[in-house]
Structures are given as structure tokens and as C-alpha cells.
Amino acid sequence: MTTAVESGRTADVIVIGAGAVGAATAYFAARAGLRVTVLDSGPLAGGTSSACEGNILVSDKEAGPELDLSLYSQKIWREDLAEFADLFEFESKGGLVVAASERSAQSLHDLTERQRASGIQVTNVPANSLTDYEPHISKKLTAGAFYPEDAQVQPMLVVAHLLRLARELGAFVHTRTPVTGFIRKGAAAIGVQTPQGDFHAPSIVNAAGTWAGNIADLAGIHVPVLPRRGFVLVTEPLPVTIHHKVYAAEYVDNVLSSDAGLQTSPVVEGTDSGTVLIGSSRERVGFDRTVSLPVLAALAAKAIDLFPVLEDIKAIRHYHGFRPYCPDHLPVIGPDPRVPGLWHAAGHEGAGIGLSAGTGKLIAQSIIGISTDLPLGSFAPERFEQVLT
Amino acid sequence: MNNNDERLMDCDGAPLPYEPGQSIGAALMNAGITSWRTTRKDGKPRGLFCGIGVCYDCLLTVDGQVNQRACVVPATSGAKIETGGRVLKDTAIQKETDKAARPEESHD
Amino acid sequence: MTDRVFDIGVIGAGPAGLAAATAAASVGLSVVLIDAGSQPGGQYWRHPDEQQVGETDHAGHHDWTTFTTMRSALHTAMEAGHITYLPDTQLWLIDPVKEATARRTLRLTNSYTAGPEQHIARRPTEVTVDQLILCPGGYDRQLPVPGWDLPGVMAAGGVQALLKGSRTVAGRRAIIAGTGPFLLPVAVGLAEAGAEVVSICEAGAIRNWLPHVAAAAQVPSKGLEGAQYAALMAKHRIPYRSRTIIRAIHGETSVEAVTTCKVDSSGTPIAGTERRYEVDVVGLGWGFTPSLELPVMVGAQTRRDVDGSLVAVVDDQQRSGIPGVYIAGEATGVGGASMAVAEGKLAALTAAADSGRPISPRDVSRLQHKIKRFRGFAVAMHTAHPVPEAWTGWLEPETVVCRCEEVNYGDLCTAHEELQADDARTLKLVARPGMGWCQGRVCGYAIAGIAASLCGREPSEEDLRSQGKRTLASPVALSDLAALNNEIHL
Ligand SMILES: Cc1cc2nc3c(=O)[nH]c(=O)nc-3n(C[C@H](O)[C@H](O)[C@H](O)COP(=O)(O)OP(=O)(O)OC[C@H]3O[C@@H](n4cnc5c(N)ncnc54)[C@H](O)[C@@H]3O)c2cc1C
Ligand SMILES: Cc1cc2nc3c(=O)[nH]c(=O)nc-3n(C[C@H](O)[C@H](O)[C@H](O)COP(=O)(O)OP(=O)(O)OC[C@H]3O[C@@H](n4cnc5c(N)ncnc54)[C@H](O)[C@@H]3O)c2cc1C
Ligand code: FES
User: Fold this and answer.
1) Rounded distance from Cα A335 to ligand 1 centre (Å)
2) According to DSSP H, which parts of C193-286 are helical?
3) Which regions of chain A carry the CATH code 3.30.9.10?
4) Which CATH architecture best describes the domain A13-52+155-224+329-388?
């Protein structure tokens, strides 16, 4: 017989969303001894976590709260999750950022100075040494910087394995179970409604990624998480051709940019399976799923600029996803003072895979009520209220 | 040059005859060659499977053009066929790549 | 590139596409006919390259006159400038419809880039059309079986294509297995070409099989009546064994032998019925399954057909539900060449009517009537030749399911049991079947079936659709993509 607790109807924590962030949250909460139930409207990893690239980057960050979270998350991947690294193809392959003009060489150089000061490991690479790192790289580049900490995972395997590990610690994962409303006791949230019935828990985590704003709406509060579309091209499988993740210095500007227009800066990387991923674009077009040929063309052209050898290589498919972003480009992580019992863990934009491990652990600490390894103030969910009023 | 000489291709340096109208894959089959590349992971041999350009099992290099489907490319006099599933155009670069060890990653 | 705008783009020059293109031209529409193959005819009327072998005698080719009549119409329309025919041309992307013009641009590339010059001459890389008739046909449907990745094992249709297109016999001793009437022409074709066919293994239980099966086969290589067929089978001493499957294929570097066995009505092997045959060719076919990336790309609805394959939904006039897009032939449900021809014609008439051309309502209802009759027949065929329910029970953990990415059945079981992959899409995401070169064309149907059987349910449309979606209809060189960078504007 299945009791309510056995199927997870009553839990200590409900996690809404089975993406990377939800999976990491579930794992760390279960590891802390909490009874966890994960609910997702689709299959597992059905959201942005299966439409991204799986880079765990420090190279695209500048001093500030996101870098702190990045460096913290790096530590969690490399320490807490080290024993599972092979399961999700964690590979500390390093990132190579390259500049194509004297001007961007200079700004790359300045960036590395600032990054080094804030604790990022980085080696400046003169133009004539770039081929030591990447034999096929364009001879036209002017400078580079190598970031040994940049790593890569297979994000779907991250989700699937972290959820498996959580289940082994007693968690329940219900796919195809959309959350349609909250059960309240006064201001507090004490459970959620789904077409498959109610689930109860004193702590509920909104890890619904790009759809986290909808979940907030269901709770009657405002958390602005918006979609920023990105396309990725996938090539035919190749023998190892590209050793690191390689991207143009302009990428960093694009990541940090608030411009709504299209930005494409190539990020080229090989994967375990032999295919080369060419990402990625950034544009704000809502949830528009129609293919954009200009974006694909720009990605292809820029990838060939970096690696002329790719010219006669074929793309076999492309995919796109919607990065969850907040207006200030910082995620929302932590308890929501407006709705006691509700936590948010969303809005990680183009870094949600890398940041998932750290986010999950911090949320677990916050729920248990111990002091968090990092202060969460900058990520406070209610910070947008103040902006609005 | 008589008709028979004309109906020859070069497969890895050896002459490969063909009949008019045959695909390269058909010419290979006729010559008793049933496989011409190996898989990436397990090194298993592959030749024709679907026969109509759908499965990509039959890939080989024709006149320097990599990853051509043997079952759809028509045989033609003097075509240079390379088996083995080479992927990058420049063989020298390919070899270098296959060997290339990851560079020593030192940082100060 | 200069603008090339046509009233109608027809994709595929098989039975459906040829019929559609010629019918559309005959009512005054300008047509561009795009086909990956080198000659018109598609799979059914595949024939050796006539530029090389000259016109051949196809007296035996069933329905050959239907083909030559349409081909003449094609040539006439080409000369008159009504049809632009682009052979050796692969459509790789259909642009979203442009709001200002309500037109679609089709992105094209060469089917292959090596070989005889006339085939690889540079062709247009794009054309723009008001309306689109998709006739992409299909390919053999496959179920994995231990050893099916050995060289010498081929799709039954591939064996046939070698015979019809290249006049090449795949080997000396063959066995043909799977289900459906199509196994017969393959076996007879091989035997006529001099190979020994040790057996046809039909998984279904066929009573009165010959007249019934042979009539359905519409054998293009030999237009034979049922009785003549029986005679040919007898002449070549080809044993036909029903309720029989290939249980395993053996060999080191190519096929050496197979083990067959009897199955019960669910497809479960019956112990003690194993037989071993030494062979060097195995032809496998479980009917055909449509090529659906183009319908899915334009947003057409799909459904699971009676035979379990994913097919495009059309109304009774071949409309896809997406304005300006019509679908005909195998893509709407596998039903053979005659039905494809009727559907192609009807699609053209409907497209013409929808763009304000006068057409004869009598022609429409005549075609609808025909299609209905063919469809009824197809349904009967599919019902008589089902994929056995218990087929996943034939798999061993080491059996390769996805040939491209080399994913074994055991990998899929693990993904389900340990990682909670409970649909075909999630299986693909965590275990990679269908992610390789062929993008799930070969294993997609099987993956959907495996996902369902692991979960103890029927395969769903969603399972199939996750395997049928391909964001590029064929591989495209990055340099071709990059070349568009300067041409298109945001
Ligand atoms: C092209 C592209 C490339 C990227 N590359 C990288 C990269 O290299 N590195 C990196 O770190 N990040 C990258 N990202 C960003 C990263 O993918 C996201 O930040 C991350 O996947 C977000 O994870 P998540 O768990 O928050 O959201 P998701 O994975 O989207 O999960 C949210 C889940 O919530 C579920 N859900 C929604 N509504 C409900 C409801 N009502 N009830 C129940 N469940 C619900 C959804 O079904 C979904 O499964 C990239 C993104 C894109 C688009
Ligand atoms: C290998 C094979 C052999 C067969 N042999 C027989 C047989 O002997 N007897 C029999 O009764 N039935 C046979 N069939 C079944 C037969 O193909 C169908 O009944 C009939 O051909 C369907 O006609 P169609 O026009 O729908 O498709 P098809 O004949 O398949 O024609 C579709 C055409 O569209 C083209 N195409 C598809 N996508 C694109 C694209 N993106 N860009 C450009 N071109 C594209 C294809 O290259 C093809 O030429 C065979 C099927 C296959 C797959
Ligand atoms: S045999 Fe399948 S693509 Fe050539």
C-alpha cells in the first residue's frame, strides 16, 4: 500500500521544476536528510536544461555576486559532486578566449587583469602560442587567454543522475505533474495543487526556470523572469578537433549586455560524442520557436572564422532554448518574505547549468535554517518590488 | 582507352571496376567489398544498409569530398575513393589532431 | 542570387510528387519540382541512370506506363517553362512563412558533392514559393535484432534499390525477413538475378497468402498476377515461412549465418523451433515508415497511423492545416504507389482551387473515391502484417539499437530503470539514440516502441514525434550556411 508520505504527497520540501537547478536542489535537500518531492509539468530535463550547452564557466564573469556564486559552484562541482563527475561527463577542459583585433586584444588583456584580481585563474596566451592549445585555430587572431577552471558537463545527464541520487536518498520525482496553484495558510504556502492532486510541504522551491515567473504569479507575487532565446548548431561527429571551449572575446560583452537585439558570438566546443557545438545567440523575442536562418548563418560564419577547418564540416541539426533572465541579470535565490514557505531558485540566464550545483546547496542550507555558505542578499527575490515602487 | 579502362575507379590505390549506372556502393559490393569504414566507438565495420541515402552507414571519401554516401553517388570514371571514414579534408592536419596531446596547462 | 518565385514548390519526384507537379502545371501553375534523386520516379520507379545505360526495357516494371506518361508530361511542361525540375537537390530547410508576401523560401543544397559533373553542377540554393506540396515518401521500417549491424545485412528496400537502380545483386545466398507483401518482390528480384533465396520469413500468420499478398505487392520489377507470382516462387524454390522471424544474425566481419525461429501470435519466440541458415545477405523490412521532418518543420499535425508509424494529418483534400501546405504520398500514411499518385493529383487540384483557379469538382470527388478505396486496402494490409507486439523481447542487452551512436538495448534499459527516462525523447536525451548521422531515421520507430514497452504502455504520438522531428532536413555544410550570412537581412 502506498501511503501519502511514500508517494511524496507529504514532504519536507516540494521542488517545482526538474531542470538542473531543481535537480541540484532536490539532491542537496535530500542529502541534508529532508524528504523531497519534485514535480515537473513535463518529462525530466524538458525545459532549458536540455536546450543548452553545459558549460561551467568562470571566464565570462566579472567581479560581483555572480562571480562569487560561480566560484562557489565550481567548488561544489569539484568537491561535493566530484565522485559523480564521470556520470555526467564532467570534464575540466579549460576555456580559451580569443581576440581578433588589436583593440579587442587590449580589452581582453584588461579583463584578465581584473579577473585575476578577483580570484579567477587565467593565463594570457600570445597569438603565436594559440596553436599550442588549439592546432586548428585561425592564424589571424591577435591574442588569447586560457582559463583552466572552465569545465563542461552533459546537462541532461546532470539532471537525470542528480534526481536518481536524490531518489536513492528517498526523494520522489513526479513528471507530467504541472503545478497549477498554491495551497495557502494565511500568507504562507503549505502545498501545491496539480491535476494529479495536492502535495503538501512546509517548504516549496520554485525552480521553474524560464517559467518561474508564472509560478510566482500563482503565488500572487511578482518575480520577473523572462526568456532570452539562443540557438546552437550541432555538427556531424568528428575525431577530436577542438580541445577546449573556444570563444571570441566579444562573447563576454554579449553575456553582460542588456541589449534586446540579436547578438551572436561564437562559442565552439567539442563534446564527448564527437559533435562540435556552435553556440550561441542571444536575443529577446519572447518564446518564439520559429527558426532564424540569419542566426544560424551568423553562427556558422563566425565559427569558421575561429576554425577555418570547420568550413566543409556539416551541421546535422540545430536547437534552441530560452535562457531565464531577470532584468538585472542576477538569479533569484532564497526565501520570499512575501510568501513564507516559498523559496525561489531561478533566473540563472546563460549559466544555470554551471550555477545549479551551488544554487542547490545554498537553497538546502537556507531551508534547513543554517547560515548559507554565501550571502544571498544580492539574489533576494523581492528586490524587484523596490525597483517598481 | 577502351571502354573497360574507362570504367575504372581508384579505391585506396587499387583499381575498382564499375558497370554503367552503378552507385559507388554497388560497385564496391560487386567487387565483394561489403564494408569500408569502422564506427567511432566500437570500431565495427559498416557498408551499405538502407541503400537509399538515409542511414549514413556507407560514408566514404570521393575525390577529396569527405562523408559522401556510397549508395547515392554514381560511379564515374577515374573517381578517387578513400575508405576508412576520414573526416577532415586535410589528412596531415587530421593526423596531427589525432595525436595532439592536450597542451600542458600551466598557470602562474 | 536572383529571385526565383514559383506558384508551387513540390518536394519529391516519386509517384506522389510527379503526379502533383504535372497536375499543377496542367492547370496553369508555375511549379518547381525538387528531388534529392538523380532521376524522377522516387523509390517505386527507381531505375538505372538512363544517361549511362540508355532507355531500358521496363516492360516488366509494374505501372511503368503510368510513370512514362507522367514523365512525358514532366518533360513537356519543362519545355514549356511550366515546371522547373531540380534533381540531385536536397531541401534542407523551409523558412518560416514571410508575413509580407505569405511566401516561403526553400533552402537547397546538392544531394552530394562528388561524382559525375552533371550531378554536382551548382544549382540554385534557394527558391521561393506561394504554396508547397510535400511528397517526401519514406523508407524501410526497421526493428533491431542481434547482429543486424553486420555488413551484408540490409534494408529489404535497399536490396531492391541496388537491384533496380544499380542492377547489382547484394550477395549469393539471401534470406529476407520482416513482414508485409514487399518481402516478395525483393526475394523474387534476387532470385531472378541469380541469387539463392533460402527463405522468406514473414512474422505474421498469413492464410491464403499468395493471391492476397501478391496483389498487394504491386511488384514493380515484375508486374505479375498472384498466380504467376506463385509460379515464380515455386520456380526458384523460395520457401515462404509465416510466423517466423530472424532471431539472431551471426558473423565476424560480415554476415555468415542467421538463426530463425517460430513465434506465437504476440511475436514471442517458441523454444525449440530454431533453424540455422548460412547466408551472405539478409534483407530486413517491417513495412515502410514515412519521412516526416518536412511536415513537422512546417508545423503540420501528426498522428499514429494504424500501422503504428507517425504520419501527417491531412483533410480529405490533402490540406495539412497549415495554410498553403499540402501533403501527399507515404507521408500521409503508407499505402503504395497508386495511392500516392492519386493523392499527389488531388493535392495539386486543391492547391489550385485554394489559389483561385477553376478546377473540376468531379475530378476531385473521383480522386477522393479512389484514395478511399486504396486506403481501405492499405488498412487491411497493415492489419494483416502488424509489427509483433512482443518484438522488444527479441533484443539482448548488447543488441545495437541506434547504429549511428552505437547505443545498445541495455543502455536504454538502464536509462529507463535508473534515470527515469519514461518516453522516447528522454531516452534520446540521456542515452543518445537518434542523435547521430541519420537523426533517428533508422532507429526512431524502434526507440518509440522500446520506450513504450519499458513503461508497459503503447507508443504514443509524442514518442514518435520526438524521433520524427529534425530541425535540418539534411546535413548542410557550414560554409553553405555561412554564405547566407551576407545575403539575408534580419
Ligand atoms: C542556447 C543556450 C545555451 C546555454 N548554454 C549554457 C551553458 O553553456 N552553461 C550554462 O550553465 N547554462 C547555459 N544555458 C543556460 C541554462 O540552460 C539555463 O540557465 C538552465 O538550464 C536553467 O535551468 P533551470 O533548472 O532553472 O530551468 P529548466 O531546465 O528550464 O527547468 C525548469 C523546469 O520547470 C518546469 N516547469 C515549468 N512550469 C512548471 C509548472 N507549472 N509546474 C511544474 N513544472 C514546471 C519545466 O517543465 C522545466 O522542466 C544556456 C541556455 C541556452 C538557451
Ligand atoms: C527503398 C524502397 C524501395 C521500395 N520498393 C518498392 C517496390 O519495389 N514495390 C513497391 O510496391 N513499393 C516499393 N516501395 C514503396 C514505395 O516507395 C512507395 O509506395 C511509393 O514510392 C511512395 O511514393 P511517394 O511519392 O510517396 O514517395 P517516394 O517514392 O519515396 O518519393 C519521395 C521522393 O522525395 C524525395 N525527398 C524526400 N525528402 C526530400 C528533401 N528534403 N529534399 C529533396 N527531395 C526529397 C526522395 O528523394 C524521393 O525521391 C519502396 C520503398 C522504399 C523506401
Ligand atoms: S546505405 Fe544508407 S545512406 Fe548509404
Assistant:
1) 20
2) 209-217, 226-235
3) 95-148+226-325
4) 3-Layer(bba) Sandwich (3.50)
User: How confident is the model over C96-121, as pLDDT tens digits?
Assistant: 999 899 999 999 999 998 888 888 88
pLDDT band at B89, cuts 50/70/90?
low
Q: Which segments of A197-353 are extended strands (E)?
A: 197-200, 203-206, 226-235, 245-248, 263-270, 276-282, 314-325, 332-335, 342-346
pLDDT tens for each residue of B24-63 = 999 999 999 999 999 988 999 999 999 999 999 999 999 9
pLDDT of residue C213: 54
Instruction: Assess contact for C108 and C124: CB atoms under 8 A.
Output: yes
Report whether A329 contacts A355 (CB < 8 A). no
Question: Are B21 and C438 within 8 A, CB to CB?
Answer: no
Phi and psi angles of residue C236, each rounded to the nearest 5 degrees, phi first: -90, 5
- The separation between CA C371 and the C-alpha centre of its own chain, rounded to angstroms, equals 19
Q: How far is CA A287 from the centre of its chain?
A: 18
pLDDT tens per residue, range C117-175: 888 888 899 999 999 999 999 999 999 999 999 999 999 999 999 999 999 999 999 99
Q: Residue C482: which H helix or E strand, with range?
A: helix C478-483
Strand partners, A199: A192
Dihedral angle sign, alpha carbons of residues C311, C313, C319, C321: negative
Ligand 2 midpoint to CA C299 (Å): 22
Q: Is C323 left (phi over 0), alpha (psi -120 to 50) or beta?
A: beta
Best of A313, A314, A316, A317 to substitute, by most chain B Cβ atoms within 10 angstroms, is: A313
Q: Which residue in this structure is represented by grid cell 492532486?
A: A197
Give residue C234's pLDDT: 86
Task: Looking at the CA of C332, name the nearest ligand.
Answer: 2
Topology (CATH level 3) of domain C395-468: Arc Repressor Mutant, subunit A (1.10.10)
- Do residues C312 and C478 lie in contact, with contact meaning Cβ atoms separated by under 8 Å? no
- CATH (residue range C2-139+289-359): 3.50.50.60
Nearest ligand 1 atom to alpha carbon A324: 19
B26 with C165: Cβ contact below 8 A: yes
Nearest to A363 by CA among A8, A10, A49, A15: A15
**ipTM confidence score:** 0.93
Q: How far apart are CA A227 and CA A225, in angstroms?
A: 7
Q: Which CATH fold would you assign to the domain C142-286?
A: FAD/NAD(P)-binding domain (3.50.50)
Of the bound ligands, which one is closest to the alpha carbon of residue C217? Answer: 2
- Cα-Cα-Cα-Cα dihedral sign, residues A283, A287, A292, A297: positive
pLDDT in tens, C7-41: 999 999 999 999 999 999 999 999 999 999 999 99
Q: What rounded mean pLDDT belongs to chain C?
A: 91
Residue C340 DSSP SS3: helix
The confidence score (pLDDT) of residue C377 equals 84
- Tell the residue nearest (CA) to atom 35 of ligand 1: A17
Q: Chain B within 8 Å of A241 (Cβ-Cβ)? A: yes
Q: Given 3.40.50.300, 3.30.9.10, 2.60.40.2470, 3.30.70.1150, which CATH number is that of A95-148+226-325? A: 3.30.9.10
pLDDT digits (tens, 9 = 90+) for C196-219: 999 999 999 875 455 455 555 543
Note the CATH number of domain B3-86.
3.10.20.440
pTM of the prediction? 0.93
Q: Are C472 and A318 an interchain contact pair (Cβ–Cβ within 8 Å)?
A: yes
pLDDT per position as a tens digit, C464-484: 999 989 999 999 999 999 998
Q: Which of A158-162, B17-21, C1-5 has the lowest mean pLDDT?
A: C1-5
Listed in order, the ranges of chain C carrying CATH 1.10.10 are: 395-468
The CATH 3.50.50.60 domain(s) of chain C lie at 2-139+289-359, 142-286
